[in-house]
Design brief:
With 251 residues, the chain is of the alpha+beta class. It has four helices and eleven strands; from the N terminus they run E-E-H-E-H-E-E-E-E-E-E-H-E-H-E. A five-stranded mixed barrel has the order 4-6-7-10-8.
């Protein structure tokens, strides 16, 4: 195939490599795009559930699947002796702690963890910020979560601190681990508290995007790789044709 002064003469190994690169790029791009669509749909369902009217906390056995991502209303008493501060949590770029306390649900023997809010870290890390715990029965609303984000931490990092009047600083929190540490049977969800209790805690929670934008970015990168494979095949396979001999050409 000729293009002006150039002829397209691909070598077999170049065609093979381009075909592999193009096929892999398209296949992986399609997979990432499908994952993005799944996560986008999941995120839409989560947002719809969070915006729906709150449901009342039901007494008796709780199934996490019936509450996760739903707005829940309940009343109970916070237990300040089991306060945990989750370290290295950012709020609008500032370092601080997430405050977690169990709530004894009113009218039942049930306990549920509440992610109460964020508080700034003092300049001196060895000091802990004072935590204001409202006394008596409190009515709260929030989003039910099945887990909290996890970060890397040394093994057994939380075992050195025991329940008491001073908060314990943890890097991560799992419901099962907190239950064993505190000796309290907990509901299988964490309530991400909303509203204001005049306790000095910030509750402008960031809603996760479920990762679909990252999948879309990866898909575009794979599609770009497929296009680059074809472009390189074309560029590297073009050969300049030598000028044809004319009447005055020496023999």
């Amino acid at each position: 195939m000729k293009f002006g002064a150039f002829r397209f003469r691909p070598r077999w190994w170049g065609v093979l490599l381009a075909a592999i690169g193009c096929a892999a790029g398209v296949a992986l791009g399609n997979w990432q795009w499908a994952r993005a669509a799944e996560r986008r749909a999941s995120f839409a369902r989560i947002e719809a559930a969070a915006q729906a009217p709150s449901i009342a906390w039901r007494h008796g056995p709780i199934e996490a699947a019936s509450l996760v991502h739903r707005r829940v209303a309940l009343a109970g008493e916070f237990l300040p002796g089991y306060t945990v501060l989750l370290d290295f949590r950012l709020h609008r770029g500032r370092p601080g702690f997430h405050v977690v306390q169990p709530l004894r649900v009113a009218g039942s023997g049930a306990y549920v963890l509440v992610l109460r809010g964020w508080i700034a870290a003092p300049e001196r890390r060895e000091r802990l910020p004072p935590i204001v715990t409202p006394a008596g029965t409190q009515r709260i609303e929030g989003i039910a979560l099945d887990r909290l984000p996890q970060f890397l931490e040394p093994p057994h990092a939380a075992e050195a601190c025991r329940p008491g009047p001073a908060p314990c600083v943890w890097q991560n929190l799992k419901i099962e681990a907190f239950s064993a540490w505190a000796g309290i049977a907990l509901a299988p969800v964490v309530i991400e508290q909303a509203g204001d209790l005049a306790d000095g805690l910030a509750r402008q929670w960031e809603r996760p995007e479920a990762g679909f934008r990252r999948n879309e970015m990866y898909a575009l990168q794979w599609y770009s790789l497929a296009g680059l494979s074809l472009l390189l095949l074309i560029v590297l396979s073009l050969r300049r044709e030598p000028p044809s001999g004319g009447p005055g050409t020496a023999r």
